[in-house]
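--- STAGE predict ---
source: upstream dedup step, 1 unique chain passed
mode: sequence only
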Amino acid sequence: MIEKRHNTPSELATWPTRKSMVRHGLSMNLPWLAFVNASFALMILLRNVLFGNIDTLTGATKRLTLMVDTSMLGVVILSAALIVMAWRHIVGISIVLFVCSLMWAMCGFLLIAVAQFPHAWPIFVALLLSGMAALYFHPLGLLSFVLPLWLALPVASIALNHEVSLRFAVPWTVFTLILICGRFILLSWFEEAWRRNQQNQRLILRLDALAHLDALTQTANRRAMETVLENAVDQKKAFSLIMLDVDYFKLYNDTYGHQAGDHCLTRVAQVLKRSVRTPHDVVSRYGGEEFVVVLFDCPEAMAEQVAIRIQKGLRAEAIAHSASKVSDAVTASMGIAGMVDGLAGTEIIARADAALYRAKEAGRDRWSY
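--- STAGE serialize ---
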């Protein structure tokens, strides 16, 4: 039965999880990071064109240039692989990032400590900042990409200067703090976006629940009941259906007033909720004083037992109805129909409605098939 609508497992499964948000972030950010990597790698591969035959000016050996060019070609290939992996959600992104960073680390050491390439420092600083901006929400990927390159630069500085240079150590410490603080700031924005997303999802589900709930009786409304029936028919779930009409309800309203009539319907709905067998059965207000009860895995003979419980429950509730022509208390007429293969939900409701009409014709305060 439906009293308060809770989030079902299928609904919760549609919520964006933290993992799915990280996956979405990677699919958005990795192509940009791959573009940055490939751009700088191509810049180094074309260094002699861009910077005027700089290999000759720095006295780089063929072995050195081969190692640098091979590393940069590998970065370009891995950058293309990262784009494909991000779009297709292929596992192993952190491994590719780590290998890519190792290639950058080797290249950075060679360009700074051996070739003393003057433009190397800003390139590798920019790479570190790009990695932090693209991967701040993915700790494993961030460490995989940043750590080898971050360690390689001070090692290259020590090899170049044959000592720990204070002029390098101080700026590098400040830069490291900038990376760490920047990552925490970006992560706080990510956490705030996550919290707001969860709040929005809860609000959407709450509004959806209200859209499927009858405000007066706190049962499912007609729209929700029809959806339940459509799903049951589509999935070939066995069910029986009871259509119920409060006897002489117009006379009840004329005698006691509409507010009393609303209270009467609320009490009838409570009787119906107590009479169904399992929480999976659905009690809904079909319209006015009419209710529909959907009983799953319930043959018509068992549905008759539910109808008996409803009848006994109304008698026990003893809602006074002096204008009724069948009793001095509120009663109900019911029509019972079972699921039939090949019939739509609306057709089964029509069969229950016809049975309800027969119950009224037979004198009310009873049920009929």
